[in-house]
Amino acid sequence: MLQDKKIIVGITAGIAAYKAAILVRALVKKGAQVQVILTEKAKKFVTPLTLATLSKRPALSALANEADGTWHNHVELGLWADLMLVAPATANTLAKMANGQADSLLLTTYLSARCPVVVAPAMDLDMYAHPSTRENLRRLAAFGNIVLEAPAGELASGLVGQGRMMEPEDIVAALERVLGRGRELEGLRALVNAGPTHEAIDPVRFIGNHSSGKMGLAIARELAERGAQVCLVAGPIALRLEHPRVERVDVVSAREMLQACLDRWPGMDCAILSAAVADYRPAEVAPRKIKRDGEALRLELVPNPDIAAEMGKAKRPGQILAGFALETNDELRNAQAKLQRKGLDFIVLNSLAEPGAGFAHDTNRVTLVDALRPPVPFPLKTKDQVAADIVDHLALRLGRAGNMPDPGSVQQAAD
Ligand code: C5P
Questions:
Q1: Is beta strand 376-377 parallel, antiparallel or unpaired with respect to 33-38?
Q2: Which CATH fold would you assign to the domain 189-287+296-414?
Q3: Which distant-in-sequence residues (6+ apart) come within 8 Å of 345 by Cβ?
Q4: Distance CA 194, CA 276 (A)
Q5: Beta-sheet pairing, 270-273 with 189-194
Q6: 209 has catalytic annotation
Q7: What is the distance in A from the centroid of ligand 1 to the CA of 305?
């Protein structure tokens, strides 16, 4: 996908700039032609010599070449590129990009670029969460740029939270998807639910689970980037997603999530239900904080509605409904039974046994179990790549796959 693609890598002055060298190397190894543009301050973190050696081209910074009096033509650079990436993108550069400032070669090139522009922000967690940064990212996404939200993890400051730059190999995979992606889902209306639900015990306590919402957000982003209009119904999750075609509805409990999903379902073409809905809730919510009195405390739990099954019942012909399943035994048989019981068209079967798969991990290993096809197992992949596989399958089911190979037929041929 990257062979002979012309890629501008913009590097700004954050500590994650040291990873930009690895990124440039990875892109060159994949056959891309890479032109590095650094801001002046980025040179304090990574040297132009390193980047020029790795990219096999001079790494540019200044608007003009002092030595021979010529200028670095940002218009030509902007037109040359098939894709422009800014990684790491600091809060400062994001703010300038969001406001059309043009005081560096990187910014003038960004304003001149006609190609897709991808930003991979990196900064400390409080800067990342600051309303001005969020607003700038929202604006950049609204302009049509692709925001690779910073994953959570340990930061250079020693703090832990969302703000570290996406790993170079994941950025490379994201660029491959951007360059390979069609707009085959233009006009499609898709509902995605994500995250856990919280079931109140009293005003301060709840029953919940470890779902981070990563998988659901990755699916919502993938759908939107292929042109779909997405309604994301999210349980209580900390992760963010900026995309002009994603409308987010925040809910807390399973019953709220059911209502939000059922209200919107008639106007949708498809739904992917990735939420880890709490199966039970306390029969009663104590009106005041329950006091500890040294005695055992018994909570009576009552079953929650099954959102997938309710949507399955309300499904009209032509709508595609997909769910997730996490099984510990008899995986395939249980998943197939669940398809029938809940009225689903396909199920994404997760394997909890696999190291690195499941809750809060960045990777997942899934098998697609479809009512109409033999199961399709996939290897361990990042959640973004798994989202792309799931959306490929959905596109196929909706008859919008273009000339994409049918994974079911590929599987049959392999058998
Ligand atoms: O029955 P099980 O929990 O294994 O089914 C998982 C699938 O059903 C997921 O798609 C999940 O979002 C959905 N589900 C639901 N409502 C529930 C429980 C699960 O929609 N109460």
A1: unpaired
A2: Rossmann fold (3.40.50)
A3: 320, 321, 322, 339, 370, 371, 372, 397
A4: 7
A5: parallel
A6: yes
A7: 9
Coil, strand or helix at 276: strand
> For residue 354, what pLDDT is reported?
65
What class has domain 6-181? alpha beta
Maximum Cα interatomic distance, the chain, rounded to a whole number of Å: 84
pLDDT in tens, 76-86: 899 999 999 99
Pocket lining: 9 vs ligand 1, CB cutoff 6 Å: no
Distance between CA atoms of residues 128 and 90, nearest Å: 9
Q: Is the pTM of this model over 0.70?
A: yes
Joined together, the tokens standing for residue 138 give 């929202």
User: So where are the chain's domains?
Assistant: 6-181, 189-287+296-414
- Using alpha carbons only, how large is the chain's radius of gyration in Å? 23
Best of 302, 336, 342 to mutate for ligand 1, by most ligand atoms within 8 A of CB? 342
Which three-class secondary structure string do you get for 38-73? ECCHHHHCCCHHHHHHHHCCCCECCCEECCCCEECC
Q: Please identify which residue in the block is written with the tokens 């996406």.
A: 166
